Amino acid sequence: MNNHNFLMENNARHMWHPMAHPAESLISPPRIITSSHGVRITDIDGHTTVDAVGGLWNVNLGYSCDAVKQAITDQLNDLPYYSTFRGASNDKVIELSFMLKDFFADDGLSRAFFTSGGSDSVEICLRLARQYHKLRGEAGRVKFLSLKKGYHGTHTGGASVNGNANFRTPYEPLLPGCFQIPAPYTYRNPFNESDPERLADLCLRALDDEIAFQGPQTIAAFIMEPILGAGGVIPPHKSFMPGVRDLCSQYGILLIADEVITGFGRTGSWTGSRHWHVQPDLMSTAKAITTGYFPFGCTMISDAIADVFEQDPSSDGMIGSGYTYSGHPVGAAAAVACLKETLRLNVPENAATRGQQLFDGLTALSHKHDLIGDVRGGHGLMCGLELVSDRENKTPASKEQVERIQSIAYREGAMVRVSGANILMSPPLIISSTEIDIILAALDSAFTET
Questions:
Q1: Contacts (Cβ under 8 Å, ≥6 apart) of 280
Q2: CA-to-CA distance for 54 and 63, rounded, in angstroms?
Q3: CATH class name, domain 68-345
Q4: Domain ranges in the chain with CATH number 3.90.1150.10
Q5: In angstroms, how far apart are the furthest CA atoms of the chain?
């Protein structure tokens, strides 16, 4: 059943793909990836490309990290599974929690709650935020604020704080009490402001106004990505996240940093919060924690939050959340090995250098190709191109144009990701200068032909 003809004939016929229309997948079946090495992937027809997507923002160490693969193999032989629900634990998850305490010390985070992935981690953040306020006698703090264009996963809580209608509208009504403010998105914003610092200030004023309107005593938390990822790679001005931190502290609102994408070195700093010199109260992580080799995630918790739970004498401090695979021993073993390799390789250094190379190359392409309306990046290995059919009016490029760019780039040796009118790139953090050049050359060819 694994032969070429069988796979081609049944591709998308019996499975529905995430973030895709089932009917569209039948008409234009997805590419079938069958092998990988380093930062390259190979499809069923033997065509090899540089993976400029990094799996899905997560394969930070590339596809040939033997240390993580060996750790998974060894753990499957020792203990393939056991629950970490009350009354049980395992050696690997204890070791990992100790390592994470050290890794996130500069972020002010010391406790770990393990999950199965990013959406789970966000959900735990939202739940713990509400529970924290209840334990402190402020049960009225139940609302959540977030950014338009922000992405926080696909669970109902995460979808409720998402700032993209595509992930909300089909599933409404969602969680009540969730409100979004404008994102510091210089290319398109309701203030018609293109200066990043002035826009950051306007967005902070909008947040202050929304807090006053809702009533600070009703708000549990503000959740944000340090750099917006799936919304189009939108880096804020350096003043923005610190400004959010100040407002949250002023009004007793918890700050949740969604670092499912930005954690573990992608921004050129060890975390996105550290990149902006901010300490959040809670942080959602996943993806690169196992370099994508095993589904695993973690919510990190600050000392101040932990103290409220750990010093509560009643049963109200019990964590009534958890997943069958929370603290999975194989995932924990993978994460231990991955974190050791991530530290050994000092991946933020290469992410910063190669990220600047990619950003500069994309900027050069924008001077050459009118289809590129905006180039975003400059903070590690996450970059985005917003495509337009009319630069003056910022008219979004058509779906056909964007998909043609992706298709030609793939043919020319680079897998990039499409999101609306955006081309997104988040290659592995171990990528070389030569491989960045391949991505840029492939895109250049694609824009030239389109």
A1: 107, 108, 109, 245, 255, 256, 257, 273, 302
A2: 9
A3: alpha beta
A4: 31-64+346-449
A5: 67
**Res. 23: pLDDT tops 70:** yes
Collapsing DSSP to helix, strand or coil, 115 comes out as: strand
Taking the chain, what is the end-to-end CA distance rounded to the nearest angstrom? 38
**Predicted local distance difference test score (pLDDT) of residue 1:** 63
Report whether 403 contacts 418 (CB < 8 A). Answer: yes
pLDDT digits (tens, 9 = 90+) for 310-346: 999 999 999 999 999 999 999 999 999 999 999 999 9
Q: What is the rounded CA–CA span in Å between residue 369 and residue 1?
A: 45
Tell me the C-alpha distance between 280 and 302, whole Å.
8
Q: Two tokens at 238? A: 């350096």
Nearest to 144 by CA among 177, 122, 110: 177
- Residues 376 and 234: beta-carbon distance below 8 Å: yes
Read off the tokens for 361.
Answer: 């190359």
Alpha-carbon span 348 to 22, nearest angstrom: 38
Q: How many CB atoms lie within 10 A of CB 148?
A: 18
Looking at CATH, the fold of the domain delimited by 31-64+346-449 is given as Aspartate Aminotransferase, domain 1 (3.90.1150)
Using the structure block, give the residue that is written with the tokens 């969604």.
258
Is 119's pLDDT higher than 90? yes
Rounded Cα distance, 263 and 230, in Å: 15
Q: Report the distance separating Cα 448 and Cα 13, nearest Å.
A: 34
Q: Phi then psi for 333, rounded to 5 degrees?
A: -60, -40
Q: Is 409 helix (H, G, I), strand (E, B) or coil?
A: helix
| CA-wise closest residue to 259 among 415, 16, 25, 60 | 60
Of 262, 192, 274, 228, the C-alpha closest to 384 is 228
Strands (E), 259-402: 282-285, 297-302, 372-376, 383-390, 395-396
Residues carrying CATH 3.40.640.10, the chain:
68-345
Distance CA 49, CA 360 (A): 21
Cβ neighbours, 10 Å, residue 102: 11
User: Residue 140 is encoded by which pair of tokens?
Assistant: 């009225």
Strand runs labelled E in 303-394: 372-376, 383-390
Tokens 């049960």 correspond to what residue? 139
